[in-house]
User: What shape does this take?
Amino acid sequence: MLKRAFLLSLAVCLLLLGVVGLVVPILPGMLFLALAAISFSAVSPRFQRTLERHPTWRGWQRRWRSGRGLPLFHRIRLAFWLTAEATLNSITRQR
Assistant: This one.
């Protein structure tokens, strides 16, 4: 019961951070929303079934459970875009 309450409160906090992150450019909103989805799926079996039916999420989840995680190409692409976003944010904030 305590674990469920903790996961639910964590999911709500991550959801709020994700929504704020979509507005504020310095916070990675999509990351927090994905973590909130994972936390909600740990609490709600119905939400977990909904995620498992989604084709993109199902592929990521299958790779994650098999121990392969994120493919190398996706890691490189993610690192590139995160670096580009951080650089762009630092440049635009200095003006």
